[in-house]
Design goal:
- This protein is of the alpha+beta class.
- The strands form two sheets. The chain has a four-stranded antiparallel sheet, with helices on one face. It has a two-stranded antiparallel sheet with strand order 4-5.
- Strand 4 and strand 5 form a beta hairpin.
- It starts with a helix and ends in a 6-residue tail after the last helix.
Length: 105
C-alpha cells in the first residue's frame, strides 16, 4: 500500500469525504439508486418508489423501502471504490488517484 493510498484511507475514515457520490439514477420501475459515504463507509442504496392511498378521508403518502445494495468495508474494497468512483467526488486528491485507474481508450 502506497503513502497516497494510506492518506486517502485516513481522509475517508475521518469523514472528510462523507456525502453523496455522483448523481442518483432512477430505474425504469421508479426506484432511485445512489452511492454515498457515511462515517467513512462507502455504500450503494436503492429506494423503491413511494405511493399514496386513500384512507377514507384523505390521500396518505408513504416512502418506498430503503435497501442497502452494497457496502465497501475492507481497506482494499474502499480503495477499489475510490478508484472506480473517485472521479465523481469533489476532492482533488481522490480525483487524481481515480484518474490513474481510468481505462485507456
Amino acid at each position: 500500500m502506497t503513502n497516497e493510498e494510506k492518506n486517502l484511507l485516513e481522509k475517508l475514515a475521518s469523514g472528510a469525504l462523507d456525502g453523496i457520490v455522483g448523481d442518483d439514477v432512477t430505474t425504469p420501475s421508479g426506484s432511485t439508486v445512489w452511492k454515498a459515504i457515511k462515517d467513512g463507509l462507502p455504500a450503494m442504496f436503492k429506494q423503491g418508489p413511494g405511493s399514496k392511498f386513500f384512507n377514507g378521508k384523505e390521500n396518505e403518502r408513504y416512502e418506498g423501502v430503503l435497501h442497502t445494495l452494497q457496502k465497501w468495508v475492507t481497506d482494499d474494497e474502499k480503495l477499489q471504490f475510490l478508484q472506480k468512483f473517485g472521479w465523481l467526488m469533489k476532492d482533488a486528491d481522490v480525483k487524481a488517484y481515480s484518474a490513474k485507474f481510468k481505462p485507456k481508450k
